[in-house]
Amino acid sequence: MNEILGYFLILIVGITLGMMGSGGSILTVPTLVYTLGIAPSDATTYSLFLIGMTSIFASYTKFKNKEIDFGLVLRFGLPSMVSIFLTRSFILPLIPEFIEIPFLGEISTDTLLMMLFSVVMVAAGWNMMRKKSDNEVVDELKKSNGSLGLILLAISIGFLSGILGAGGGFLIIPSLMIFAKVSLRKAIAASIVIVMLNSLIGFAGDYQQFSTLNFQILGFLLIFSVVGVFLGNYWGKKIQTQTLQRGFGYFVLALGFLLFFIEMNSVLN
Asked: Where, by residue number, does the polypeptide cross the bilayer (predicted)?
C-alpha cells in the first residue's frame, strides 16, 4: 500500500511541475523516504535524478513557445550549478553520520536532514499560500539590488538544493522576479530549465554512489513523474494556476509540520 501511495505522490510531483513550474519537487524526498523506505541520504540522490529528468519534459513546451530567456538561465544557473556540484561532491561527504546537538544528544544525520527538509517545506508552503499581487511584486522590484543579489541567491539556493536534493523552484521563481526584474511567466520558464540543470549537475556530483542505485525503481518513478508533467501541462490550461498554487501551499505547509513532529518525536523518544 505504501508503495502505491509513493508512486501516486510522484505522479503529483510531475503534475505540479507541469502546471506551476515549481513546488512539487519538495515532496520527492519525503515520498521516497516515508513510502518507499529509501534512506534520506540516498533519497536526495534519487530525487535529483527524477527532478532533473522530469524537468527536461516540463521545459519542452516552454522551449517550443520560445518563453525561455537563456541569458537569464546562464546568469542564475551557472553560480547555482557550481554551488550544487561542490556541495554534493565535497561538502556532503564531510558530514558525519551522527551529530551532537545541545539538549537533544547525538542525532543521526538522516534525522537532521528530514527535520531540515520539514522546515523548508513549511517555508515553501507559506510562500505558495501568500501569493503576492502584481503591485506587491512591483514594489519589491524597486527595492532589489540586481545582479549581486541574484548571484548570492543562486549560490545559496544551489547549496540548499544540494543538501536537500530538491529543485528549489519555489525559491528560484521569486528570486528571478525580484532580482532579475522579469515577469512571472518568464521566471517560471527559466526556473524549469535551471531546476533541470541544477538537479542533473547535483546528481552527477553523486557519481560515487551510482553503483548502489536501483535504476529499475528510478525508471518506474520517472515514468509516473513524466506522465504527471503531461497531465499538468494539459490541466494547467483549464485550471487557474494561482488558485492551485495556494491550495498546494496549504498541503505542503501541513505536511511540513507533520514531518517535523514525526522526526522530533523520534528524537525525543
From this structure: 7-37, 43-60, 72-91, 111-129, 150-180, 186-205, 217-236, 248-268
Range of the domain at 118: 2-268
Residues 202, 207: Cα–Cα separation, whole Å: 9
The percent of the chain in helix, strand and coil, each rounded to the nearest 5, is 80, 5, 15
3-state secondary structure of 99: strand
What's the whole-model pTM score?
A: 0.81
SS3 113: helix
* Structural contact between residues 115 and 232, judged by C-beta atoms closer than 8 angstroms: no
Residue type, 202: G
Q: Assess whether pLDDT exceeds 90 at residue 248.
A: no
Q: Which helix (H) or strand (E) holds 74?
A: helix 70-86
Helices 2-20 and 215-235: crossing angle in degrees, nearest 10, is: 40
Q: Where are the beta strands (DSSP E) in 21-180?
A: 98-101, 105-108
The CA distance from 75 to 260, in Å, is 35
Domains in the chain: how many in total? 1
